[in-house]
Amino acid sequence: xxxxxxxxxxxxxVTGKKLTVTCSQNMNHEYMSWYRQDPGLGLRQIYYSMNVExxxxxxxxxxYKVSRKEKRNFPLILESPSPNQTSLYFCASxxxxxxxxxxxxxxxGTRLTVL
Amino acid sequence: AQTVTxxxxxxxxxxxxxxxLSCTYDTSxxxxxxxxxxxxxxxxxxxxxRQEAYKQQNATENRFSVNxxxxxxxxxxxxxxxxxxxxxxxxxxxxxxxxxxxAQKLVFGQGTRLTINP
Lengths: 115, 118
Hints:
The complex is a heterodimer of chains A (115) and B (118). By secondary structure, chain A is mainly β. Helix content of chain A is 0%, strand content 50%. In chain A, the strands form two sheets. In chain A, strands 2, 4, 5, 6, 9, 10 and 11 form a seven-stranded mixed beta sheet that branches. In chain A, strands 1-3-8-7 form a four-stranded antiparallel beta sheet, with no helix packed on it. The mean pLDDT of chain A is 94. Chain B has 118 residues and is mainly β. In chain B, strands 2, 5, 6, 10, 11 and 12 form a six-stranded mixed beta sheet that branches. Chain B has a four-stranded antiparallel beta sheet with strand order 3-9-8-7, with no helix packed on it. A two-stranded antiparallel sheet of chain B has the order 1-4. Chain B is globular and about 45 Å long. The model of chain B has no long low-confidence stretch (mean pLDDT 93). Chains A and B meet through strand 4, strand 5 and strand 9 of A and strand 6 of B.
């Protein structure tokens, strides 16, 4: 089954404690991306990756890091989380090119609370 | 930069009624893609319907249809014969043609919370 998995699904942590949210896809997609969802703001892109070792900032990258060492994995790293990073996070995986119109896969979401 | 605006934060209708959710966007591109996503309480993002800008015919998927007005940059979603299971947050989203690096990015509106009452 084609899918994007994220872990953990829920996380409560404290300010400054480094954390990683994992994302994995089994569709061999080149393009992966992280979004955060906040009330009244919709989903905003944090980082994206066009392929292995190719990453770039989205619209709200401050306070986040990513890596793409393998095609299937795209972890989101919060090195020093702060309360304003409390949000719902989604990982997304798309094929490249025009196929992105027809195939868009989102993970189940990670609810992060930073105290 | 592209922007997407959903001006209705919340809507509520009775079961079996028809409801229309509004979406406007701003772009200088001539071709692009538009989408409506449904997010039920499970939080899963579910693609409801999609539209290519160069296609003048409005997309339809069962009870869901769109009214795409390219000149007005409007992309509304109509849900006919609404059902309790349609209760969800709905997001309108824009994507540039994916011929440009990074163009697979989806730009989302703020969302409309739709409640279908029995």
